[in-house]
Specification:
Layout: H1 2-21, H2 28-41, H3 53-57, H4 82-85, H5 88-92, H6 99-118, H7 124-131, H8 134-142, H9 146-157, H10 162-165, H11 173-182, H12 192-207, H13 209-212, H14 214-229, H15 232-237, H16 239-246, H17 248-251
Helix pairs in contact: 1-6, 1-7, 1-8, 6-7, 6-8, 6-9, 9-11, 11-14, 12-14
């Protein structure tokens, strides 16, 4: 625990040092998210607004832009809603300067603690090693928002197979956590099919393959409910725009 505390302190100091050395936002990703959060706070739908103003507002270098195949920069929000909704509490309290970096760094600290607490004791020291790697810390501070969904993925992975044994609300924290992770970025979307197949195999061992299908179906139900809860407002207001934007990374003409 002492080593964990020292590691967390070192991560914070490293993050502060990196911000002072380069206060501009390193990617369009965090600039878009914070700008979208500002729009949402004032009742606007970020999926219907251009994010172009965020480049100047957060001093994003062209090196941090995402480009289309024709060479033009992407100026539309292409992330699920929790990617910016998670900023709202601090934004409402008046925190604006380096807000995205603060949230990213806090998420990484939480992920490190979760990894330390939830892994078997013999593996817990590895959580300290992983949590303190400058590679991950610099990415979190530099503008890569994957740190935001990592705590939810860790919770979803914790005793994930318990849901196959007892697919009830007691173990619903797994699919809910994965659904929230999927509400932050598209990367965790690709984990869901593997989890569902694994649950089906686990359940089929004792229930048979037909009855075993009910387990991943329930898991998918909890997951979908958690995902849609964060998006319901935007789906109802403009379903076509919402769907088009969050699928752009997979189907759009982006580099």
């Amino acid at each position: 625990w002492v080593l964990l505390g020292l590691t967390l302190l070192a991560v914070v100091v490293t993050g502060i040092t990196q911000v002072y050395a380069s206060p501009a936002y390193g990617t369009d990703e965090i600039a878009f998210d914070q700008y979208a959060a500002s729009l949402a706070l004032h009742g606007h739908n970020p999926y219907l607004h251009s994010m172009a103003r965020s480049f100047a507002a957060f001093h994003v270098s062209p090196n941090g832009y995402t480009f289309r195949l024709d060479g033009s920069p992407v100026t539309a929000l292409s992330y699920p809603a929790l990617a910016f909704l998670i900023y709202l509490p601090l934004l409402a309290l008046g925190v604006h300067t380096q807000l995205a970096v603060i949230v990213n760094l806090a998420a990484w600290l939480i992920a490190t603690v979760l990894l330390f607490v939830l892994t078997p004791r013999r593996l817990a020291p590895l959580a300290v090693v992983v949590g303190g790697l400058s590679f991950y810390v610099s990415f979190a501070v530099g503008g890569v928002t994957d740190a935001l969904f990592v705590p939810f993925v860790i919770i979803a992975a914790y005793r994930w197979d318990r849901f196959a044994v007892s697919p009830t609300w007691r173990y619903a924290y797994g699919p809910i956590a994965l659904g929230l992770a999927m509400s932050i970025k598209q990367t965790p979307w690709f984990a869901a099919p593997f989890v569902l197949v694994a649950l089906w195999r686990e359940a089929s061992a004792s229930r048979g393959w037909r009855r075993g299908l009910a387990v991943p179906a329930r898991y998918a139900g909890w997951l979908t409910a958690a995902f849609m809860l964060t998006h319901l407002d935007y789906v109802l207001r403009s379903p076509v725009a919402w769907w088009h934007h969050i699928t752009t990374p997979m189907a759009g003409d982006v580099v």
